[in-house]
Amino acid sequence: MTIFQSRFRLAALLLAFPLAFSSCSDDNDDPKPDDDNEQITTVTYVLTPTTAGGSTATVTWRDIDGTGGNAPTIGTLNLRPNTTYTGAITLLDETKTPVANVTDEVAKEKEEHLFIYAGTPASLLNITRTDRDAKNLEVGLVTRVVTTAAGTGTLKITLRHQPGSKDGSATPGDTDVEVTFPVTVQ
């Protein structure tokens, strides 16, 4: 082997050496736990009266193609005045086959989720979250809803994703889904 060939091999080795190690750098690219927001295409809220004589009210919001596509379909929540209901919310991801029940995931991760229920006007509905996580903070998969006199308004339901920051308030975290239903109490 000539001196030229030896120097050429040495130069090639020196050039290849940094390339071999550049892909192994430690830039804190370690995998992190999956704390991404949930994909939710369908929200169904079922209210069952606690007294005899009333009928169950069900309302659904559905946005299969997501934000920016077609407008979501939104039902109207029809309730009776001066009635107490037990509410249960169901969340689905209909982009998956089979359809994914996101409610189960939220139930397993109660310490990371909080539902916010806001009726407008505030006097139309009184909503209380009745389920709690291991830290005794409210979750909101199950609720008690009390209607007042007849009227119309809206009900906004927001699911906050709060991994590591849940404190019982709506402030920390990100929004997984937010829907607003028209409400008629008659």
TrEMBL record:
Keywords on record: Signal
Secretion signal, residue range per the UniProt entry: 1-25
Domain of life: Bacteria
Protein name (Swiss-Prot/TrEMBL): Type 1 periplasmic binding fold superfamily protein
Organism phylogeny: Bacteria, Pseudomonadati, Bacteroidota, Cytophagia, Cytophagales
